[in-house]
Amino acid sequence: MKRVLILTLVFLLSSCASYSVTEGEIQEYLDKNASFERTVGVKGLAYANVKFNDIKVGIGRVSDDRVNLEAKSEAKIIISGQPEQEVSIDVSFSAVPYYDRNEGAIFLNDLEVESLDIVPDVLEGFGSKHLISPIVQLIGQLLLTRPVYRLDEDDFKQSVLKTARPELLIKNHSLVVQM
């Protein structure tokens, strides 16, 4: 009788142990955790101060197995001997989500630039165009190294999934973490 009860409990937990993370939940998480300000380049010669705080998320909208992110940032480009330039950079990425059990979080992998829009589209000076690539790389690196969502240990269902070896699927514009 005890075995039957244990097997029934395990079956019920494994069959109902899934958690859907919606675009809205990921958006809320990123709004709280994904802003930054960094400098790229060599100060005194050619560098850019980058402010990044706006990401829009889409799950399975561009491709069935990918998450798309539209990132907006502002950069002040300073090149020795030239006037300071302000640039607005809108870049769209797509990436494959994966679940990291050790972190209890969803990360992105296989990041691809889908589109890039720079305003103004004509920059003064030779060095300014060479600073755009490191800015886009910086944004991409931050998206790859920071979670887009972390499971909540205070929520019973999420804490059960966090300790298991769940798989991550994209269904109905949500990320589904399930056993």
From TrEMBL:
<dbReference type="Pfam" id="PF07273">
    <property type="entry name" value="DUF1439"/>
</dbReference>
<dbReference type="InterPro" id="IPR010835">
    <property type="entry name" value="DUF1439"/>
</dbReference>
<keyword id="KW-0732">Signal</keyword>
<protein>
    <recommendedName>
        <fullName>DUF1439 domain-containing protein</fullName>
    </recommendedName>
</protein>
<feature type="signal peptide">
    <location>
        <begin position="1"/>
        <end position="19"/>
    </location>
</feature>
